[in-house]
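Revision sheet: structure tokens.
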Amino acid sequence: GIYSYYEKNNLLISGNTITRPNRGSSGTLYGIYYYYNTANTPITIEKNKIVNLYNGTGSGTFYGIYGYSPTNYMNYINNNIIHPGVTGGGAVTMYGMYLGTVYSAAIDHNTIIISDTNNNNTSAKYGMYLSGPPGSSVTYAYEVKNNIVHMTTPAGTSYGLYLASNTTTTS
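Predicted:
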């Protein structure tokens, strides 16, 4: 995947295809991981395809896009396709998009497909998981518009959109 840690200026991740055709063992896997933005400039994640990444047989966690950005600048997450593939028999928690401690984000025109045909995988699955820091009194604003979230999960709990902490959305 793509890993960005303490980016200094205008993070742009655009037009990538992230795939793992020879999917082996499981564990924790990130398609795109971004953590912090030290220059307090916008973050843009757009036009990426994150597909066929997870087909392990053990337990683990999948994050299509994982974001942590505790600054007052906007995160733009637009026009991405996230489809991790089907687990191969393991207990896998899946997050199509996980935004923890992100002050504000425009999340528009993304397609997230969480398909898991493993009837024994009782782990939780999330299309979008949006959160601020636990216990914070600050309200975090997310604009979530025109996204497609498709969940095919025969076992476990599934959430198309999960709002945690002091999170508000506009549509």
